[in-house]
Amino acid sequence: MKDFYTVVVMSPSGGPVRQHSVSRAMLLSFCSIGFLILVVLGASIYLTVNAGSRLASSHQEKKIQGLTIERLNNKIQDQETQIRFHETKWDEVRGMVKTVKHVLGLENKGILGQGGSSIVEDGQEDQDPFSPDPDALDAGSQDATPDSSVPQPISETPEVIPKLKEEVRKVYDAVLGSLNELEEMPFILPLRLPNLTKKSYWYSSGFGYRIHPITKSRHFHSGLDIATRRGTPIISAAHGVITKVQRSRSGLGNTIRIKHPATQMETIYGHLQKFATGIRRGKKVARGEVIGYVGSSGSTTGTHLHYGVYVNGSTVNPRNYIVEKIYY
């Protein structure tokens, strides 16, 4: 009996009593199996919890990596924005210095490019005039094509900064030493425009050889025809002295000629509708002063201003002496 255990099962309702005998070996087997089940169950729970923890840790690491990459991308975008900002400012400085260098005649003398229009063979001007505005104009002899300019790339090397400083110093010294020459250097559009936000003029005929609109023969056009509204004020392109005031029904029609002694230059304004009050030979005029009004006097097919520029008595292309976007 030592190898067996008796289990008595009694019913609470007075039913029969049942007895079960279990050997010691069987009881030990049941206990061992139960223990193994508990061990396996505990190990499974541990492994499951551990795997879940590792998975959560992996997700957290990926989330941190994603945030890090996002921060790096934001920094890169900020740096790109700053680079574009500085490029824009650099282009603005470049443009301003180029304009001043053009006015002072310092082209081809530095790192900041060259100014003025180019002239091709046979005296013909490169094609970049303004397009006409049909609603704003009442004249013009030829069609023009829209102006197109390609922005120049900038240098991003640190060595450019001291070179830029040197260029600005040259411009500064030239301005201080050439105030008289600057005042008498024609570099503006010789028109007082009524509305600077809208194109109200265009170049109807350029400098160089062309077919004459009236005679239909090939001849050299010594100036620049600027078409605009009749009666638009004409202004002196620079300080100077009026040397000629002529009324005529042929040629350039009503004409004004201004001498600019400090620069050995002269400017001529033709086809005027009428002269401004007080305009006479010998009168001193300042840059931007109204001298007459656009018309169609003389030999012409429409309302426009004939504008001519002379250096030491020789005619030159007026487009080289007009800095666009500088208006009076």
Figure out the total of helices. 3
As a whole number of angstroms, the C-alpha radius of gyration is 45 Å
Let me know the number of strands. 14
| Helix amount | 25-40%
| Tertiary shape | rod-shaped
Largest sheet composition:
10 strands, antiparallel
CATH class assignment of the largest domain: Mainly Beta
Range of strand content: 15-25%
CATH level 3 topology of the largest domain:
Glucose Permease (Domain IIA)
Structural class, from secondary structure content? alpha+beta
Which regions have little confidence, pLDDT < 50, spanning 5+ residues? 111-155
Q: In the residues, how many domains can be counted?
A: 2
CATH architecture designation of the largest domain: Distorted Sandwich
Task: Quote the distance from N terminus to C terminus.
Answer: 129 Å
Summarize the helix and strand pattern as letters: EEHHHEEEEEEEEEEEE
Q: What value does the average pLDDT take?
A: 78
CATH superfamily of the largest domain: Glucose Permease (Domain IIA)
